[in-house]
Design goal:
Elements (H helix, E strand, L loop, with lengths): L1 E5 L7 E5 L9 E10 L2 H7 L17 E9 L11 E4 L30 E5 L3 E3 L6 H4 L2 H15 L7 E5 L3 H12 L3 E6 L2 H10 L3 E4 L6 H8 L5 E6 L6 H7 E9 L12 H6 L3 E4 L5 H14 L5 E6 L3 H10 L5 E5 L2
């Protein structure tokens, strides 16, 4: 089979190679991958950003993929050849609260990912694809879609009458906007582009703020809610946005800490956090049930994930460069023949 392999750290060291076809063992499923998608964490992994918690050479990257079952190993009853499936980001975290054992294995980091034609999965680490989604659309879910679902619905329980603030136009932010809107919540969305802000409103954002023109957007967001503040901030910016996120959040509200696009270290106004009873909640993707729930929600509501662009497997380095540029609106995906 063909696989894109990171021979050593750095996207410049990606090489398309012929490697032996894998075979499923007992309890395993062989999947012919048809599509994959990129996440910011894949860029970090390519640069060695996870240190000892990832392979630093000979890694098949990318965590999110969808395809069809080719063969099942002994004892597998849940799947059969031809089934359309999506792989889980954490193959051992099936449901419930996380622990170290459940999160020890992640695709495209500690073990090989899905930038390849064939891959063996544990039978429990797969979820059925909705008929309404293409392989490319389904491949957008395992990291970004699940993270947004976990933050907006599973943890915060956002619904009608509540307000959610999202940051930017990456995968998690757009999934969060779509999920919150479908749940009946009001969404305030941030961007630095007027063109992108118009697209955010088309997706369901009631209000948009240009964070470059309005550096005190946290104060502005609070004004938009009659000085009450938002119920949830889906925090994907990190160091340079957290201060304003705290300002925007209502007393007793939640900041779902997800991304660190603008940096990993930030100063906290601890008295303000304490006196406002703010909850800063770390969200590390989610479990298999979250993946199944998010896929079902999109199918039931007739929603499609936002796909920015697709590239062939051999152009993975170009796709990585596009994500690094920050120009995308939605998910950047890979089509695998």
């Amino acid at each position: 089979m063909k696989a894109m392999v990171m021979e050593s750290l750095g996207s410049a060291n990606l090489r398309l190679k012929e490697v032996p076809d894998p075979k499923p063992g007992p309890g395993e499923v062989l999947v012919r991958l048809r599509a994959a998608s990129l996440n910011f964490r894949d860029l970090l992994a390519l640069e060695g950003g996870y240190g000892s918690r990832q392979k630093s050479a000979h890694l098949i990257p990318l965590s999110d993929g969808a395809g069809e079952v080719v063969e099942v190993g002994a004892g597998v009853k849940a799947w059969q050849a031809g089934d359309r499936v999506v792989g889980c980001f954490f193959p051992d975290w099936l449901s419930g609260p996380p622990n170290e054992a459940m999160m020890a294995r992640d695709l495209g980091g500690m073990e090989d990912g899905v930038a390849c034609e064939l891959r063996v999965f544990g039978a429990e680490g797969l979820v059925a694809m909705p008929k309404s989604l293409s392989f490319v659309e389904a491949a957008a879910f395992p990291c970004a879609g699940v993270t947004a679902w976990n933050a907006v619905r599973a943890d915060a329980g956002i619904g009608p009458g509540q307000v959610v603030l999202t940051q930017g136009c990456g995968g998690v932010a757009l999934f969060a906007l779509q999920i919150a809107s479908a749940a009946g919540a009001r969404v305030i969305a941030l961007s630095s582009s007027e063109e992108k802000m118009a697209r955010l409103r088309q997706l369901g954002a009631q209000d948009t703020l240009n964070y470059k023109e309005d550096p005190d957007w946290g104060k502005t967001a609070r004004k938009l809610t009659g000085q009450r503040g938002v119920d949830l901030v889906v925090e994907t910016g990190g160091a340079q946005t957290l201060k304003q996120s705290i300002r925007a959040t209502r007393m007793g509200g939640t900041i779902a800490m997800i991304g660190m696009v603008s940096g990993p270290t930030a100063e906290l106004n601890l008295p303000l956090v304490a006196m406002s009873s703010l909850r800063i909640h770390g969200v590390a993707v989610g479990h298999r049930d979250h993946l199944a729930q998010s896929l079902a929600a999109f199918e039931t509501n007739g929603i499609k994930p936002v796909i920015d662009s697709t590239y062939p497997l051999e152009a993975l380095a170009e796709a990585v460069a596009h994500v690094k540029s920050g120009k995308q609106f939605g998910k950047v995906c890979i089509e695998i023949a």
